[in-house]
Structure formats: structure tokens, C-alpha cells
Automatic annotation (TrEMBL):
Disulfide bond is among the record's keywords: yes
Lineage, highest ranks first: Eukaryota, Metazoa, Ecdysozoa, Arthropoda, Hexapoda
GO biological process entries: motor neuron axon guidance
Stored Pfam families: TEN_YD-shell (PF25023)
Keyword annotations from UniProtKB, A to Z: Disulfide bond, EGF-like domain, Repeat
Teneurin-like YD-shell domain ranges (all copies): 3-711
The organism of origin for this protein: Dendroctonus ponderosae (Mountain pine beetle)
Keyword Transcription regulation appears in the UniProt entry: no
Taxonomic superkingdom: Eukaryota
Name of the featured protein: Teneurin-like YD-shell domain-containing protein
Amino acid sequence: MIGAEITKAITLTNSTVALKTAAESKLEICAIERHPLLEAYLPIEAELLPVWSKQTTTFGEYLINTISTTLSLVGDVRNPQQILSREIHVNHSKVLGIEFDQFTSKETFFDYEKMPLLTVTYDPAGLPLTYTPYNGADVLNITYDSFNRMDGWKWGDSQLKFSYDRHGLLSELTSPQDGIQIFTYDETNMLTKITLASQRNFLLTYDDNGGLRHVTLPSGTKYKFSGIIRVVYTPPGSTRSYLQHFSNSGKLLQTVFPEGVRIVYRYYDSGKLKEVVHGDGKMLYTYSDTTGLPNQVSHVEKDLEYQWDYQFASGLLMEERINFGAKTGLSNAKFTYEYDNNYRLVNLQGRIGGQNLPLYNLAYNFKTGSAEQIGPFKIIKLKANETQVYDGTALFSSVQNSRFLESRVALTIHGMEVFRMEFSHDLHGRISQTRTYTKNVGVNTYTNIKNYTWDCDGQLLGVEAQEPWGFRYDDNGNMLSLTYRGNTIPMEYNSMDRIIKFGEGQYKYDSRGLVVQNAREEKFHYNSKGLLTRATKRGRFDVRYFYDHLDRLLVRKDNFGNVTQFFYNNDQAPREVSQIYSPRDGKLMSLVYDNRGHLIYAQVYRHKYYIATDQCGTPVMIFNQYGEAIREIMRSPYGHIVYDSNPYLYLPIDFCGGILDQVTSLVHMPNGKVYDPLIGQWMSPLWENVLERVATPTQMHLYRFNGNDPINMGVDREIPKDHIDWLNKIGVNLKSLAPQLFMNNLPGGPMPPSLSDKFSWKPDEIIASQLTTSERATEAESGFLAHINIRRMGNAKQLSVYSKSALKTDVIDLVPKKIGASSDPPFGR
């Protein structure tokens, strides 16, 4: 019991455990099945020790999800080498089967029709040797040395070799295309140097307790870290620091920016976020007294006030209302949601400014769990590697290669292919060539071929095309020059790796490192959270921006009286713009994204637009419902528009899914930052998660975009790490098929709940400025809830026979686990 929030749990004599949370969600676990291997040799013990095999969760009054497991032996029971079969049923329908052959150490995953999906072969130590998919994709082969350390892997044409030092630490990564990356350690086995294939060196230094203190760049400038309860981060070349204060339980209390501006976080006694206060305004979060679920956010700042009301049913968001202050001149909105028994959204209805949203239904494939309807579009899989999305007028198709990389996308309208884009990849999955074919009604096909070249660190060097591009970088990753149409534009930087000159134009910064003037002499203003609030140019424009409590762009206003509101209602992609509304003329634009998260459709009144995008979701061409190309956009590799056939057709979704402001040419990106595609840099430093990027030095730059690789942004080039990754790439969405295999991700939080980790606003979304996660002190927990947590059925990772060692560390995980201190503790060591 926490305040008025009561969680009840009981255990019954028939091997059943039941739990009811304060939010009215329920969990019931039963031990029914006897393990067949135990039953074959010790039948009495098998009856006394049944397996936890049936589990039911209930959300709201009627959404009930039941998962059960049946175990059996295949073949002769007397055979000492058995095949153990396991079937997963959800709501009385089989969704997955797993068979493990003890003799061959092979584990095979089947779909509901017992068609094989994936086979994993293990060595005697239980380490995976091969992953063999049955959809035609390449087999992944993994080798190990005599100490059971990964020696290398080969997946199709792609491969990587690992070398270790005498202490068993990773010392080299060898790639046949890019060369060797070297890792050096000190006498205490701490990583002290990362040498990239280009021979650029990044040095790491630590305090006496092994906490990271400095990361030294090739130029000699340093990232500086310090603190435990009070964390200090100093950017390279700067004397001013970011400060963050944490409580003993690890909660962020305040963030102080280099010029002294601060954000303060307050919490209720229960530990839930209560208030966020900064110099320009504040946000107050309230929760239900009985269920503990969020029910309102009040946002107050100059020129923007709103109340965002939430209505939950056992953790499922059923309704949200957004009511703006009367003086804002903004339109209110309401959205309602419906779910199926797997807790998946199936219907969205809403109203913005008195206008009803178009019908938006979702449906899911009972075999794979993947979406088979999104709004007006149906989704089918013609082949294992080919997907089609269609609405009766337009058909979008995408084809993957044998490494699950997209090799072709196409758009067909009324039976005529109007757009096609084909991709070739190098050994590392980077795009090496694109071939774009476009055709307008009654016009010949136009072909555009681009060849991309990369350095051994993965930075884009050039694009060979009808209009070629070239780029040059220094050792810190700063772009030194840009070449286009034979013209070279030089750039200059200061000691803090901030661009100060682009050609003859100058860039200026404030003390926080935020761009306040660019090369076009446009001026920018920010709030105390570092969010862009105003962009001006004398005699040209004056644009203001307002944000919601998740730092998403909510409203844009300009000096011409234009007002634009942005709405977001996709819980799976909370920063994806769903509707765009103009309260002045009542113009509502509804957007639809495909199963990849790429924009494909926009509707304004009765006008329908179909959007063809590239590999990262950037619109390339827009067609009307008759198949006519009504807008074509060409960009630099970093996203700057160099040609737009129809800029008056308003569709702000732009580079990599961000929101373009056509007046400033800046893009509000999904991560909450503003991006300048002209120079490929962020307008504000990306300092929040810099610690996570230490192991990949090319990504550490505070301003550069995606390690100087704008082409493969968001493209998943990593090898699948386990059966969950493989099934997901094959097209089986386990979380959608069997949500109870992911008990920590259920609506309303983990089941059973934790006393110290209560359902609150998502910290990653609210507290976007958290530099590091402070280790939480030991807190009181319920022994009974912990007992139930042990008794619950296994999660998705435990579907595999072999579980990962809880003792062995991953030598390939090089991210520092803690930061150091600049001084001794108050009472010494």
C-alpha cells in the first residue's frame, strides 16, 4: 500500500497466485504442467513440482489475455537423447512452438502451423554457433576461441574478427573493408585508448575508483566528467560545465546549464514526478489518488497555457483531452483509443477544433503479430522479403535483401509504377549506390544514379552523381569543406568544435553553446531548456515555436499571422506527427505512416496525397490520387533542399521524418533537437547522452549529425543478437503476439509491480537532460511481490533453452559504467 494505492496479492493451495494492483489490473499465475523430462524419470516429483504454465492478465473490465505453455517429448520417451517440445498459446490459440533436440543441440522455432522460422545450433558450452532462418536470409555463423570468447562472425558477405589481450579483454576489431580498430587498457584493465581504423586516437582517463574522468579527442581537447550525487560535465575546450544534482534514490533534482540557467524537478512523497520548473514556465503532473495513474499535466508559460487530461483504464490510455488557454487562440483536441485482448491499439477516434478525424483502424496478423491494416491501408506479405501496403489507389512495395536491408522500394498508382528506388550496400550494410526511377503521367522514365564513398571510419566522403558532392573532415569529425558543382565552401571551427565560419558567413553562439546567429545572419532565441523558441531576420520573418511537456513541437506562429498546431497520438512512436492543424482556416492534415514508420499518405479535406520516401523516411516525391507528380524535392546528402518543384504545397514532414520550417530551412527532428541541414549540424549541443557514445567515438561530436553519415540514419545494420532479434527481423512481432512474454512492458508498468519503481510519466521523455543514470540506493521491496515475480512464467528471452550467463561480462560492451570524481569524499577514502 502506497498512500491510498493498494496492491493485493494472495497465494492459494492449488498452486495459484493472484494479484490485483491499485490500477485495477489483475494477474493470475497457475502451476499446471508437469515437466516431461522430470515425469519420465521421477513421476512423483513431477507431480509435486508442476511448472508455472498458465498466466492471465486483465486490464479494464473486459481485456483479458491468457498465455499458457504445454510441454511434451517428441519420439521415444525411453531414448536418453530427447526432443523437448514447447508450445505457446495465447487466448487459446497457438502462436509459437519451440523444439530442442538434445542430441544435435539444435533449437527450432515454429509458427502456429508448425512451419519452421529459425534454427539455432549450439556448441557443448551452450553458445550459439549458427542462426539459420527459413525465409531465405543469410545464415549467421559465429566462432569462439578456446576460452569461449567470440572469435568472429560471418553473415553473408559481412564479417568481423575479434582479438583479445592476455587478460581476456577485447583488443582488436578487424573488418576486411575498413581495417582494424584497436582498444588499449591500463594495468587495472580499464579501457584507456580507442584507435580507429584511420589511426585517430581517443584517450580515456579515470579516477582511483575506476570512474571515467576525461575523454581526450585527437585534437587534445577533453570531455570532462565528475560526480556521484552532483554530476559535472564539461564539453571539449570549454571552461563552463553542465551540472546535474541527484537524490540518494537516483532521481534527477536539477540541471544547471553553463550560463546558470536551471531546470528543477520536484517529486511527490511516493517518488512520482510532480513538477518541472524552469525560467520560462512550469509543468505540474497529477495522479489519481486511488489508482496512482497519471491524469493531468498543467503547462504554464508566457503565451502558452494548456491542460492535458488523461483517462486510463488499468494502465491503458483510453482518452486524452488537450484544452488550451482562451488567450492562446489555439484549438482544443480530444482523442479516444480502443484496444484488443493483446493490449494493441485497434481504433483511434478524435476531434481537433470541432473537426472529426478520418477513420483510423489498425489490425494485426494472427500468425506474425505484425500490422496488417494501418488506417485506410492494408498490408500483405507477398514473399518472405517483400511487403505491400495498399489502399485501392496506391500500392507501396518494399523488398529486403538477404541481410534484411532494404534493396528496393516502389510506388504504383492505378497500376502504373510512378516511383522506384533501388539500393546497393557494402560489406557493412552502408548504402553504396541508389538508383531512382520516376515516371509522370505520359512522360518518359527519368533515372538518377548516385554512388556513395566512405572513409574507413564510416564518414561520408562524396557522392558521384549528375551533381556530385564532396566532403572533408578533421580528426575531431568537423567538416572542413563542402564541394558542390565544382565550388568548394571552406569552414572554420573554434577550440570547442563549434563552426564559426561557413564560407564568408559567420556563426555565433551563446554561453550554452546554442547557435544564436548563422551564416545567413538569421538570429535565434532559446528558452531555459535549450529549446528553440524564436527565429528572426530583420525585414524577412519572425517565427515563434512552442513545445509540450515532452519537448515536442506543439505550435508554430509567424509574423504573417500563420498558426500551425502539431498533434501526436502514436504511443509506439510518441514523436511521430499524426495531425497538423491550422486554427485560422480550419485546415486539418491527417498523416499515415507505413509499417516502417515512413510517411506514405496525407489527407487534407478530400485531397489525397501519396508520398514516396527514401531509406530514412525523407519525402522525395509527392503524387496526387491520379498518379500525377505534384512535387519533387532534391536535397544535399545532409538534407538541405537544393530543388523544390512546388514549395507552395505544404507538407512539413521532411528530412529523416523531422518537421521542416520552410522559412528558416531548419528541421525539428524527432529527438527534440533542431537540425541545420545546410551544414549537417545540430543547433544545440547533443550533450545529454554523451556517456553512451563513448564506445563509438565517431558519434561523440556534440554538433555533427550521426557521425557524419547522413545516408544511413535510422537504418538497422547490426547483426541480430538473439532469437528475439531474429524473429523480429523475420517479421514475427513477439510482443504483439504474446504481450505477457514482456511483463515489464505491460500497460501500467511491470507485473508484478515494484514498490520502488512506480508508474509515472516516462522519465526518458520528461527528463530529456539526464546525463547519466545515478545508481539507486537500496530501497525497501515487498518480499511477497518478489516471490510472485520469481513464480511468474518465463519472459521472451527465456524461450531459448540456454540462458545467458549472469556472471560473465560482455567484453564487447565498452560503455563506461560510472563517472569519476574530481575530489576526495568529505571523510576521505
